[in-house]
Specification:
PyrdxlP-dep_de-COase (chains A, B), pyridoxal phosphate (chains A, B), decarboxylase (chains A, B), L-tryptophan decarboxylase activity (chains A, B), homodimer, 4-stranded antiparallel beta sheet, lyase (chains A, B), 15 helices, alpha/beta
Chain lengths: 506, 506
């Protein structure tokens, strides 16, 4: 036996002498990664030189890339050259300071290196033993952010709840919805799943309907309650009660409400407290989707948007939107971890170990859809420590201040109107209806304005339609945006409008 | 108006003169990221100095970390020191060459810098316009890997199908299951969801049952068909047919089969072709979960494990397991993208644009659960180009060769037995039943052997139970593992066994 081992060792030694394939040679790693750092730092330095909205046509890449992968290795320099020449022209530059579309996806040096460290370990933290630090740091960081948001103890591990990092709001909603669904089905029987009804408003994120369908909620039982301009498109508790009562009268079972703090179209805010009153009367699980608006609530002056949160069941917030973490990072807190675990836990033999079986530790695989998961909390931990709470609050305030600047500029031009009140760093505005033109033409003009501004590549904004009104969305908050970018964007909008109006009356 | 603008610009200039908070200052980014690169390269260099299985106790981190986040910034050096002192001791080092647990999660310099580039852009590629390059490169890379696997045209964009990067197998199964479910419900009516039946074996990944429950399949309709040692724990097509026939006789509707190429416990292989025969007779959607084993099929000599794939509906494979991509990277191909899109598409006003509305482009948000998504394909693209197909095949072969070495070492010791035939790079073995001891004691001895070996911190293996037999899993494949690590692991196992046996007969 000893001789067999020594044979293998001799063989192994001779193998090691030949030039072996080592994709994680530390020195090669060092060289490539340093090169990548400089490439990226230079990209950030020069980002304003690129058109913010990509100007390529569909299919542009097919002709630039071989149809099959190479048999032999290609150098990193060659690949970086291709990234520069073939990929960058096809990028819509989300990190450009001239990006005012959708909601920004914010970033920071701290989160970048946090993700490098997460990759460094490449730990698969499905349960505690597979990566104790990954599990425990996530618990700490979720409690930290809960403290910053002044969430009650019932949402913290230091209390009776807890938090988990999901990839997206969709997953956060899915996991909580499944928990609520299974609790209800236990009572009414799985054959009555067709009785379960879920509630959102017509402003709730489009993913809500998708997620409800995934969870097997019958499509005709997904209520999209209408909102109106007069209520700033927030969900009316009165109307919710009416809809719920009608469902109950029909023998249906109210299940789940998704309330939003900062809707995607216009950052409308649903009144959590009053909605929770209604929900409590019917044992409805209330989830608050604060993907965008939640981040602002780390500032005491915006915290009131979360008033009533102590009465809801779960809350999600995406730091990748406004807390500088890069994609993807969605925080979910719940008062009822056990209900989520009841629905999502698995217990295969090959993952069993004494410590996990003792129930003394968290197994994050039971808090999410998948089994595998990265060491997700490092990014958020790095952000919170590298900048500190004070800077993060000021970062939110500065963004909002820039939006205020833009709002004032819009108001200073009588051709424009602000369509809904600005709550955070999104301004919803449009060209007013001009004398002698109808509303369809107004919409057309606004569309033209948007197309022309975006096609310059100097600014990227988007649009939405609410209450039948087509409006332009100007979302401030890209990490590199400063006052002068906002002012220059306004100047471009104004000049484009001058030209449009001239054509109009020509 | 002009004066308002110039007022703002003056204000802005004076703001810029004060020391502003700039979390993406390119030079600060450069400095931090270079520091992180060296930290990580040094970690890889010294990784063998750490115990592979973390030796901390539950709760170890709470006492090392403040209860609340800091108000003021902390330096990157301070944080890196804490990573070294507080995080690393709590890591189970998945990238250690002495990690033989679960399945390895493999990595490479190329994938690391690929992810750095993905983060660089931080593009949210929910639809084409939001990031044309992210959409198109993903299509190219999915076709590339399909070519490497000799998948038929029906799974490629260049044919009539297509592929998408998911995070985990769970998501891949969920998306295809929902597509199959909704197609069926359209025919039988949503009120008959309780009739839908899904099939796997008792070796199918534990996430399958979880995902089926998420999708609203009634728990009593999830069939876990037993397998036996004599069939190497592969799913018997005959037995499948019997179970399906019984369901049909009861008026139930067979829906979905999850077949596995390389099960988690023992890398068993379900016979795709023969299972597809049965499925075809009942219009069952067949999904092949080749999360681990699929990667080996890039080698012509292992491709036969996918024989029959041309007859299934979808296939998933996780390059983060064996193709060096870091977490998370799960490839899903399907012949029926439209069915997935039918179930998962959303069309909110704020994401509409002319190009997307023209249907000429792919909107990857409609191929997944969430809306947002990273530029996921860069990592895989970097791996395929940086190493080339030839090296990747040899990397698979080298890992398998090391497993063969280990298998021979086990066989050379009469106290041990190989429990199931080795297919890839996982060896399933155990201490045999010794004279005078019963099977319960044999299990206890094997457990003790595992505990003692793992507690040394020199090696980490795991266990499973199949067909009532407790066995040890030795999974070769961590990126840094070489022959001498395998031989040393065996030596440790052998010596530990010597001591155990001595105690036994003492």
């Amino acid at each position: 036996m000893g001789s067999l081992v020594s044979d293998f060792l001799t063989m192994s030694k001779s193998n090691n002498n030949s030039k072996e394939f080592n994709p994680l040679d530390p020195e090669e790693f060092r060289e490539k990664a340093h090169k990548a750092v400089d490439f990226i730092a230079d990209y950030y330095k020069n980002i304003e030189n690129y058109p913010v909205l990509s100007q390529v046509q569909p299919g542009y890449l097919r002709n630039r890339i071989p149809e099959t992968p190479p048999d032999a290795p290609e150098s990193f320099d060659t690949i970086l050259r291709d990234v520069q020449n073939d990929i960058i022209p096809g990028m819509t530059h989300w990190l450009s300071p001239n990006f005012f579309a959708f909601f920004p996806a914010t970033v920071s040096s701290a989160a970048f290196v946090g993700d490098m460290l997460s990759n460094c370990f490449n730990a698969v933290g499905f349960n505690w033993l597979a990566s104790p630090a990954a599990t425990e740091l996530e618990m700490v960081v979720m409690d930290w952010l809960a403290t910053m948001l002044q969430l009650p103890k019932s949402f913290k591990f230091s209390g009776s709840g807890g938090g988990v990092l999901q990839s997206t709001t969709s997953e956060a909603v899915l996991c909580t919805l499944i928990a609520a669904r299974d609790r209800a089905l236990k009572e009414i029987g799985v054959q009555h799943v067709g009785k379960l009804v879920v509630y959102g408003s017509d402003q709730t994120h489009s993913t809500f309907m998708k997620v409800c369908k995934i969870a097997g909620i019958h499509p005709e039982n997904i209520r999209s309650i209408p909102t109106i301009l007069e209520d700033d498109f927030s969900l009316s508790p009165k109307l919710l009660r009416k809809v719920v009562e009608a469902d109950v009268a029909k023998g249906l079972v109210p299940l789940y409400l998704c309330a939003t703090v900062g809707t995607t179209s216009t950052t409308a805010i649903d009144p959590i407290k009053h909605l929770a009153d209604v929900a409590a009367d019917y044992r409805i699980w209330v989830h608050v989707d604060a993907a965008y608006g939640g981040s602002a609530c780390i500032c005491p002056e915006y915290r009131h948007f979360l008033d009533g949160v102590e009465r809801v069941d779960s809350l999600s917030l995406s730091p990748h939107k406004w807390l500088l973490t890069y994609l993807d990072c969605c925080c979910l807190w719940t008062k009822n971890p056990n209900l989520i675990i009841n629905s999502l836990s698995t217990n295969p033999e090959y993952l069993k170990n004494k410590i996990n079986d003792s129930d003394s530790v968290v197994s994050y695989k039971d808090w999410q859809v998948g089994t595998g998961r990265k060491f997700k909390s490092l990014r958020l931990w790095l952000v919170l420590r590298s900048y500190g709470v004070t800077n993060l609050r000021n970062h939110i305030r500065t963004d909002i201040q820039m939006a205020v600047t833009f709002e004032r500029l819009v108001r200073s031009d009588p051709r424009f109107e602000i369509v809904v009140p600005r709550r955070f760093a999104l301004v919803c505005f449009r060209l007013k209806q001009f004398n002698g033109f109808d509303s369809a033409y107004t919409e057309l003009l606004n569309k033209r304005l948007l197309d022309r501004v975006n096609s310059t590549g100097r600014v990227y904004m988007t649009h939405t339609i609410v209450g039948g009104v087509y409006l332009l969305r100007f979302a401030v908050g890209a990490t590199l945006t400063r006052d002068h970018h906002v002012v220059a964007a306004w100047e471009l909008i104004r000049e484009t409008t001058d030209a449009l109006v001239k054509e109009c009356y020509a």
